[in-house]
């Protein structure tokens, strides 16, 4: 297994500007991983035990829709965070995720990061703030897509 360094984490856009001591904590819980295209990373409603910072490739987020099966709802790509359900009770995935192409990522032990967030308030504030920023961007993107879908003429949907 390749050791994840603080320098490697500092270069990831999600962690840009994070204090060195916080990067050090994260590096202790990280692994450098690779997945082939078509690999299911997690399933909706199951326990959320890790999260990823994507270095390359893309991951399709999906949701089970009665009568339609899995429906793709978004795609996460390089430089982005995959997974937020690990941070909020009940720690279960809100969506499913499957690699849409080969992926390289930093994978984090969510339980260990959560424990450090609880025991080190400054670290917890930093991590939660970055996660909130990602969630806000995704909500804005979803809002734009919903508006776009609602204004299209009926025959073009």
Verbal overview:
This protein is of the alpha+beta class. The chain has one domain (6-156): Jelly Rolls, CATH 2.60.120. It is 34% helix and 28% strand. It has four helices and eight strands. It has a four-stranded antiparallel β-sheet. It has a four-stranded antiparallel β-sheet with strand order 2-7-4-5, with no helix packed on it. Strand 4 and strand 5 form a beta hairpin. Helix 3 crosses helix 4 (121-151). It is globular.
CATH topology: Jelly Rolls
Helix count, DSSP H or I runs of 4 or more residues: 4
Please tally the β strands and state the result. 8
CATH architecture: Sandwich
Shape type? globular
- Major sheet: size, sense and barrel closure? 4 strands, antiparallel
CATH C-level label: Mainly Beta
Measure the end-to-end span. Answer: 46 Å
Radius of gyration: 17 Å
Summarize model confidence as the mean pLDDT. Answer: 91
Strand percentage lies at: 25-35%
CATH H-level superfamily title: Jelly Rolls
Number of domains: 1
Helical percentage: 25-40%
Coarse structural class: alpha+beta
Helix and strand pattern: HHEEEEEEEEHH
Q: Report low-confidence residues grouped into runs of 5 or more.
A: none
Widest beta sheet: strand line-up: 1-8-3-6
Task: Throw out a few tags for this protein.
alpha+beta, four-stranded antiparallel beta sheet, 4 helices
